[in-house]
């Protein structure tokens, strides 16, 4: 029997971003969509670091007695999924990374705060952006320690994620392959059937 499936959303999104896929994903398996720290129902409490978010996921799995999972992460959720697979390789059977590349230093920019209430703490956006703009070099180097078979989904030229960083991630992860679904960054939202047609066979092995 397949292990539980854990879904990690992107920065500024909550677990609800996976709702449309849940009926298909939950056929015959247990599925957990998780809010990351500073989002939705998760604690809105610093530190808003990728390490702390990774540890939050492990704490939730431990609290539910879940030893091993298939892990899916979109964007920020994918970066956290990578860290989890590096730090706790025995906990991840298969890994799916949606439109996330190897983290490289980049020129910082100031994000514009949206009007009105949001389902996330604005401070989490600023904190995460600082870490993404100036990442620890070990984040890329540690990708070689991922042991899980890994599927990397790329959103194509309309995505803001540089294509060469996705190629670098695929190159650095020992057992990784790439599939491009040319709809931009929000692959599972804009092309849910294509996403399912690609991800489900991979998870089924």
Topology, please?
Blueprint: E1 5-8, H1 22-25, E2 31-33, H2 50-63, E3 69-74, H3 76-87, E4 92-98, H4 122-133, H5 138-141, E5 150-154, H6 163-172, E6 176-180, H7 187-190, H8 192-204
Parallel strand pairs: 1-2, 1-3, 3-4, 4-5, 5-6
Helix pairs in contact: 2-3
The CATH topology assignment is Rossmann fold
Provide the number of structural domains.
1
Q: Which value, in Å, is the CA radius of gyration? A: 16 Å
With helices defined by DSSP (H or I, 4 residues minimum), what is the helix count? Answer: 8
Runs in which pLDDT lies below 50 for 5 or more consecutive residues are none
Provide the structure class.
alpha/beta
Helix percent reads 25-40%
Output the helix-strand order.
EHEHEHEHHEHEHH
Average pLDDT level: 97
Q: State the CATH architecture.
A: 3-Layer(aba) Sandwich
Major pleated sheet: 6 strands, parallel
Oligomer: single chain
Order of neighbouring strands in the sheet with most strands: 2-1-3-4-5-6
Write down the CATH class: Alpha Beta
Query: CATH homologous superfamily, by name?
Result: Alpha/Beta hydrolase fold, catalytic domain
- How many E strands? 6
Sum up the overall morphology in one term: globular
Give a brief rundown of this model.
This protein is an alpha/beta fold and 205 residues long. The chain has eight helices and six strands, in the order E-H-E-H-E-H-E-H-H-E-H-E-H-H.
